[in-house]
Amino acid sequence: MKSCLLFLLAALAAVPAPVPELNPKARELFDQAFQLLEQGKVYEAIPVYDRALAEAPESPDIWMEYISCLRKAKYSQRAARAGWRALEVGEEASTVWGNLGNVFCDGRAWSAAEEAFGRAAALSEDRRWSAQNFLVLGYHQMICGDSEAAVNSFQAGLKIDPTHGLALIDLGIAKATLGRVPEGVRDLRRGIAMIKYQAKQAGDDDPGGVGYGQAALSVLEEKGGLTMDDKFSRDSFQSLPDRFLKRPKKGEALSLSIDPAVERCFQITPRALVSFTAPESWREEFEMKSGGPVFTYRPESGDEFMLMFSPFRMPEGKPDPRKMLEERGKAMLETSVEANLKMIPIKTPTAEGCVFTLTDRKLVGKTRRGESYLYATQGIVASGQAFGLFTLLSDSRDESFLKEFRSIIGTFAVRDYPPPGSGSAPNLSSRP
Q1: Could you give the CA distance from residue 283 to residue 262 in angstroms, rounded to a whole number?
Q2: pTM of the full predicted structure?
Q3: Which one, out of 7, 8, 102, 231, has a CA that is 20 to 30 A from the CA of 393?
Q4: How confident is the model at residue 225 (pLDDT cuts 50, 70, 90)?
């Protein structure tokens, strides 16, 4: 599975568009921003793109590249707004519609993504690229547990480019996850054979996609079925409010308002997800550690705190969240100023838990270096099928600051995910 994801993401890599005539300052900033983007320094690149746009506010090329940067930074609303702005200042370009489709995929707005990719295909003569967009959509749907929608997307890709072997492989996998194993095996074999034949014609000794398809076949032969369970909890997403899913009137793209806080969602099973609401401006990083997924959040500027969040399925036996947290706290007391834990209860509409704050004895009176923060606040909030672990490392334990953090934990929610074949992911935003 991993090889396919890498294969698909490679097709989405930011590529610098042909640059129009820009003034020297705008060109210099544009190049600098792209170099930062290529190095993965997306948050450092954003202010440079902003400066470039201040110099050339109607450059479609800068706006289009900016979409990719904002997507990678998990600023979904800003990315959608940049996409609509790119269409305002430039021609009706397939590449912009393709980028918008990717933004909608990120937000699991399947219908909007399908429409955007359809517009991109109508404007492009590159059938392989156009089909690849629908493969991206289908792969997103499949790893989110909606293989029925994925089947339709993969078939749409094949309609555009019937010679796309990877589309057949993905179609076979989607069918297999629905229990249609014989059909899935047939499509997998056809896709592998197609890629091998095309590679032989092109003199390619290492065609992409073959290993991915063969791995899927091996799993089917061994287990008789396929699931996508290993993909859950490895990504966050934000549902886009409706105002970002439809094209604004000419000249009104930049008037689309960005919500000050957004709901950050994490799918943990095929039918369940968890979320919490936090400032839209926070920077996000992800790392899969031995203990599970860790999403780290920092303020847009500065480093006075860092918040780590890990979503988990509830273990068998459904342990008491208070006891789980107490065990963690007691271990931390050995190096803390405090002699006892002060547990503060947290209750949300769908879950409950508690939180504590401790001071690291070794760091008292010292200047912080790196991520060695003086104060650590931990909280666990749980429901019947899931729990979230929050860890706040900070320079302050001011009560107003901690109260704000506890209010964020208080937004933790657990909800059902739509059944397969519903046609779209949930629109979690009630804002128009």
Answers
A1: 12
A2: 0.88
A3: 231
A4: confident
Q: How confident is the model at residue 329 (pLDDT cuts 50, 70, 90)?
A: very high
Give residue 265's identity as a one-letter amino acid code: C
Encoded amino acid at 418, one letter? P
Nearest-10 crossing angle of helices 60-72, 94-106: 20
CATH code of domain 2-231: 1.25.40.10
DSSP letter, residue 57: T
Q: What CATH number was assigned to the domain covering residues 272-416? A: 3.40.1000.10
Question: Contact 350/414 with Cβ under 8 angstroms?
Answer: yes
Query: Helical H runs in 239-295?
Result: none
338 by DSSP, 3-state: which?
A: coil
Cα–Cα nearest to 404, from 338, 328, 307: 307
Q: Do domains 2-231 and 272-416 have the same CATH topology?
A: no
- CA distance readout (Å), 378 to 96, 154, 274, 327, 412: 42, 43, 18, 12, 14
Strand order in the sheet with 292-298: 283-289, 292-298, 305-313, 386-394, 375-382, 352-359, 344-347
Predicted pLDDT at 7:
42
Token pair belonging to 339: 């002699």
| DSSP code of residue 255 | G
Domain positions in the chain: 2-231, 272-416
Give Cα separations from 84 to 94, 248, 258, 354 (angstroms). Answer: 13, 7, 14, 43
The pLDDT tens digits of the residues spanning 388-409 come to: 999 999 999 999 999 999 999 9
Three-state SS for 218?
Answer: helix
Model confidence pLDDT, tens digit, residues 136-173: 999 999 988 889 999 999 999 999 999 999 999 999 99
- Find tokens 């197609």 and name the residue: 194
pLDDT at position 418 is 65
Which stretches within 298-341 are classed as H helix?
321-333
233 pLDDT tier (thresholds 50, 70, 90): low
Calculate mean pLDDT across residues 47-52.
98
Side chain identity at 315, as an amino acid letter?
P
Helix (H) or strand (E) holding 352: strand 352-359
CA dihedral 76, 79, 85, 90 (to 10 degrees): -140
